[in-house]
Write a structure and sequence with these properties.
Blueprint (H helix, E strand, L loop, with lengths): L7 E4 L5 H12 L3 E6 L3 H13 L3 E6 L5 H14 L5 E4 L14 H25 L5 E6 L12 H21 L4 E8 L5 H5 L6 H8 L10 H12 L10 E4 L5
Parallel strand pairs: 1-2, 1-4, 2-3, 4-5, 5-6, 6-7
Helix pairs in contact: 1-2, 1-8, 3-4, 4-5
Bound molecules: NADP nicotinamide-adenine-dinucleotide phosphate (NAP).
């Protein structure tokens, strides 16, 4: 498929997990892709290598999404190396599931800074860098933003804020032909969900048992095609949408 030929895409948090799957899928549809990472240089370089060996174009770019200077540098590197970006996927995100009395200022700000301040900073830079013809912003939310389970209050709140920001921005940026949509994954097996012990947990087992399609965990490859669609001109008349990629769990 070449429906993203000529597009330049930035995927934040693409060194592993869902972001890596999205970066690979955008590249295999023809986009040149900037694979952003915070700490995992080897992971990001592995994703770039996989894309290049499949005939695609990609670069790895370090940057903490929650730091304005990093985000500005990231865009400068992308413009210089790949050209004018017109697709932004705000995927980088962190999650900590814990009871409310365990929440600290540190875990609160870590999740809000990464999951909300990050996409805000990226969007601000994208508005400066996108061409006059417009572009596509895809924010990665979660199915639990409107159906949170216990011990997920802060994480779910960050993603509910993301849902609200996406709708507001879709109205604010429509006149510039910049579309803003959200993809809300369900339970997806990634390095992140394995690291926190979610894979194999009671909450996960319950979600899996209630998943209409397949009764299984999703994989990054289940999420990526929806992002490719929203990034493409096939979705030219869609903005402010929230699509659940969750096997029907909601
Ligand atoms: N997995 C699920 O079940 C699930 C479900 C719904 C929604 N989501 C959402 O999907 C997204 C990806 O989740 P995942 O499970 O793939 O996570 P993951 O496996 O933990 O990967 C997280 C990615 O985000 C990057 N990252 C973290 N903090 C960053 C920062 N400050 N600046 C730049 N990059 C940063 C990491 O970079 P480094 O490795 O380089 O540090 C890594 O590439 C998140 O927004 C998450 O909330 C996940």
């Amino acid at each position: 498929m070449n429906n993203l030929k000529g597009k330049v895409a930035i995927v934040t948090g693409a060194s592993k997990g869902i972001g890596a799957g999205i970066a690979r899928a955008l590249a295999s549809s023809g986009a040149a892709v900037a694979v952003n990472y915070a700490t995992d240089k080897a992971g990001a370089e592995g994703v770039v290598e996989a894309i290049r060996s499949a005939g695609g174009t990609a670069i790895a770019v370090q940057g903490d999404v929650a730091k304005a200077q990093d985000v500005q540098r990231l865009f400068a590197e992308i413009v210089k190396t790949l050209g004018t970006p017109n697709v932004l996927v705000n995927n980088a995100g962190v999650f900590q599931f814990e009871p409310i009395d365990a929440v600290t200022e540190e875990t609160f700000h870590w999740q809000f800074n990464t999951n909300i301040l990050g996409p805000v900073l990226l969007t601000q830079e994208a508005l400066k860098a996108f061409p006059a013809s417009g572009g596509s912003i895809v924010n990665i939310g979660t199915v639990i933003s409107n159906n949170p389970f216990a011990n997920a209050s802060i994480y779910a709140a960050t993603k509910a804020a993301m849902d609200a920001i996406s709708i507001s921005l879709s109205k604010e940026l429509g006149a510039r032909n910049i579309r803003v949509n959200t993809v809300a994954p369900g339970h997806t097996e990634t390095e992140g969900t394995r690291r926190i012990g979610f894979v194999g947990s009671d909450a996960a087992r319950q979600m899996v048992s209630q998943t209409p399609l397949g009764g299984r965990f999703g994989s990054p490859d289940d999420i990526a095609p929806t992002v490719v669609f929203l990034a493409s001109d096939d979705a030219a008349w869609l903005t402010g949408e929230r699509i659940c990629a969750s096997g029907g769990w909601r």
